[in-house]
Amino acid sequence: AGAAAEARFISSAKGKGLFATKNIRKGETVFVERPVVSSQFLWNALYNYRACDHCLRALETAEENAQRLLGKSSLVLPHPEQCSIRKDLHRQCPRCQVTYCSAECRQAALEQYHQVLCLGPSRDDPTHPLNKLQEAWRNMHYPPETSSIMLMARMVATVKQAKDKEWWIKAFSQFCNKTANEEEEIVHKLLGDKFKGQLELLRLLFTEALYDEHLSRWFTPEGFRSLFALVGTNGQGIGTSSLSQWVHACDALDLPMLQREELDAFIDQLYKDIEKESGEFLNCEGSGLYVLQSCCNHSCIPNAETSFPENNFLLHLTALEDIEAGEEICISYLDCCQRERSRHSRNKILRENYLFTCSCPKCLAQADDADVTSEEEEEGEGETDDAELEDEMTDV
């Protein structure tokens, strides 16, 4: 229905890109997209970041969220009526007790993948094949998390449950695929030095938990590596937070000046205190596969950005500039700090994490700059090696 953007094939080197089909004004929403599949990160869930098992909507009230992040159960938030969490709507799976934000999400999960993945009474049984798979993954992939084996499990379960299996296999195959060498690099990035042994262990556990003859290729060493690389390359980080929802709602309140200043000071202090206690881990976090968003190419001067303003997995792509019909829509895979660094540093991060060298206007303009990183950049170099980049750039 009159979409403002469409995916087009650019070249075999660049693959697809996303292009405006009409003029888009700065600040406009280009599209809102739901993922084909998504999943919360495993450590995130283990540490009690409570989210809907289907759409990742945060389940705690803003006050509970702040109390947990602060480690202080006595904290009281002003304007509790600005919290959007509706506990009366929450529902659990009657068999395995995972929680959903609504009956609709419980139903959607059941219809798409949960029948296959429901652990029933084995939820806490460490010998259940799915629990063994999750435990193995957690032991390989510590926070900050960028991916989840359960995203792949949900892909398999979706095909297993589907009447039209070919439709889903085709849906997953439209995500950007890499060559065998590139796949190895991506898996290496996610699993580190022991990646061959670890990948094989994961494949065996994955097979034990989920094997299906319709998908036999996904369970071969090559097919499993491809699936792994597909999720590693295309997974978009999702972040939700009832506290940030509450803050946005408070920002919009029409208050007398003195009250406004008091509230702003309270919120600033709250975030400072939380940072001391919980660091950067504020959100319920996971990742998902988005058909349109995954077609967006990177630019160091992006004209659009992704966010999750509805406190669930619905991704909003918003224009940062006026975009003309026919123009390519680009997002940045780097965070603000990384974008300010030299071309050499930016491309080092992009090559390591996304396997390409950027040729956006900013990089072309700086093409003659020296290929060495400046002194102060060298000092910061260590930090970006594991930088969670776009996967975690959730900008709730």
Describe the protein's topology:
Elements: E1 5-11, E2 15-20, E3 29-33, E4 37-40, H1 42-46, H2 62-70, E5 91-92, E6 99-100, H3 103-117, H4 129-140, H5 149-161, H6 165-173, H7 180-191, H8 195-210, H9 221-234, E7 236-240, H10 242-251, H11 257-278, E8 284-289, E9 297-298, E10 304-307, E11 315-319, E12 328-331, H12 336-339, H13 343-354, H14 361-365, H15 375-385, H16 389-392
Parallel strand pairs: 9-12
Antiparallel strand pairs: 1-2, 2-12, 3-11, 4-8, 5-6, 7-8, 10-11
Helix pairs in contact: 2-10, 3-5, 4-8, 5-6, 7-8, 7-9
Fraction in helix: 40-55%
Order of helices and strands: EEEEHHEEHHHHHHHEHHEEEEEHHHHH
Main beta-sheet strand count, sense and barrel state: 4 strands, mixed
End-to-end distance, in Å? 27 Å
Low-confidence stretches: 375-396
Question: What is the overall number of helices?
Answer: 16
Number of domains: 3
The value of Rg in angstroms is: 22 Å
C-alpha geometry: globular
Mean pLDDT: 90
Bin the strand percentage: 5-15%
Structural class: alpha+beta
Number of strands: 12
The largest sheet has its strands arranged as 1-2-12-9
Keywords: Cytoplasm, Metal-binding, Methyltransferase, S-adenosyl-L-methionine, Transferase, Zinc, Zinc-finger
Domain SET: 5-334
Subcellular location: Cytoplasm
GO molecular function, one term: histone H4K20 trimethyltransferase activity
Can you give a write-up of this model?
With 396 residues, the protein is an alpha+beta fold. Helices cover 44% and strands 13% of the residues. The chain has helices at 42-46, 62-70, 103-117, 129-140, 149-161, 165-173, 180-191, 195-210, 221-234, 242-251, 257-278, 336-339, 343-354, 361-365, 375-385, 389-392; strands at 5-11, 15-20, 29-33, 37-40, 91-92, 99-100, 236-240, 284-289, 297-298, 304-307, 315-319, 328-331. It has a four-stranded mixed sheet, with no helix packed on it. Strands 3-11-10 form a three-stranded antiparallel sheet, with no helix packed on it. The protein is globular. It starts with a strand and ends with a helix.
